[in-house]
């Protein structure tokens, strides 16, 4: 079994600072990759009308979670529950829920002080992703005059004038690129297409107009200002939208080989067909590595950082947590050819998928559970074109909707993106499996998991039981994290994740 190693450990090294101590800031950095969960924790931490006593965490009868300011907005309860469970395992009945809540809110956004007007406008740009409920923008689209009339009319179709009709209906805060972290939010404001009253106030003949114009015309200026403001808020670096996602699969071995840039001696994995223009976020890992190196020089590998960041990104998006075994070392080479040969292809049928996972020591249940990682992320048209035009095991309406943005002819629209999970594309849940039951798998390989074969019953189980999926997924992630790890004297601890040590 190539993937097992007793050298990986959940605790610490004996020859220096604790790995987990050194990684204590990596978790929050990855967690803050989700502004949605960051805001959820902040809201939970801030909304305590009866005092800071964690009363908001109590489920109904007639509790605070369903009160008007909180209903549908304050979330992250599951995250708090997970933290509490882990704390209780170490210190039973010692740390209160109120203290956990305070720390979580503090970690989500540290001390909202020393922020200037530019910081305010930059941080408002986080509305480039996310949605708002009708009850929060109704007045703006019906009463305000500083709103584009066509934009207002289109919002009214989903948000009736009379409350509470449609109160919880959602609209994207950024109508132009709702799933991408960019500067389109500011261009929307120039066109009077801010969804919230408070959004449009930033461009309404006031002191912030020039800043909005600057950010709308200069993405680099916005990115720089946003980063500065985020550092002020919590000494963090945003890990968002355009910086891409951390892929959950480490197939060649969890040795951070994918982070290596091409050199004169090898062509790395980043340009391999399954990865090109798909796997990103390398600069974010470099930022995390820089901060870790400042505290624990050549102690924490890039491979361990990737493993922890992948776990915390799943948690940040609403998914389960698991114990990440530590002690991996980094590879000193990478191979484009190996990546193209070994990674499961979107065109694989069930037989090929099963063999691909089995060759790595992973079970059929592991395979189906790990495929559930497609509950987040997107795929390019070139990877699902054959499925939506040629396969018969696909919902016809679903296929037609995808064909509108993915032309049949190769070379046209190849890089156009579609969410792998159309139901809840930015939430880690079990909706992916429900989609398969409805023949709405985006990739050929996705739908093969539910196509009259041996994995049908597992898909049904995961679709009907979120807890069954979460349990299987965490087990599979631990199993996959142990695929051929480099330990002991193998490899090295890279100082920079993108290149081998000189």
TrEMBL record:
One of its GO terms (molecular function) is heme binding. One of its GO terms (cellular component) is extracellular region. Heme b binds at residue 374. Substrate binds at residue 344. Its cofactor is Ca(2+); heme b. Its EC number is 1.11.1.7. Its main location: secreted. Keywords: Calcium, Disulfide bond, Glycoprotein, Heme, Hydrogen peroxide, Iron, Metal-binding, Oxidoreductase, Peroxidase, Pyrrolidone carboxylic acid, Secreted. PROSITE patterns: PEROXIDASE_1, PEROXIDASE_4. CDD domains: secretory_peroxidase. Disulfide bonds join 302-497, 381-406. The keyword Protein transport does not apply. Ca(2+) 2 binds at residues 375, 421, 429. Residues 51-250, 252-501 form the Plant heme peroxidase family profile domain. Ca(2+) 1 binds at residues 253, 255, 257, 269. GO terms for biological process: hydrogen peroxide catabolic process; response to oxidative stress. Binds 2 calcium ions per subunit. Binds 1 heme b (iron(II)-protoporphyrin IX) group per subunit. It catalyses: 2 a phenolic donor + H2O2 = 2 a phenolic radical donor + 2 H2O. It is an enzyme of class 1 (oxidoreductase). The keyword Disulfide bond applies. InterPro entries: Haem_peroxidase, Haem_peroxidase_sf, Peroxidase_pln, Peroxidases_heam-ligand_BS, Secretory_peroxidase. Belongs to the peroxidase family. Ascorbate peroxidase subfamily. This is peroxidase. It comes from Dichanthelium oligosanthes.
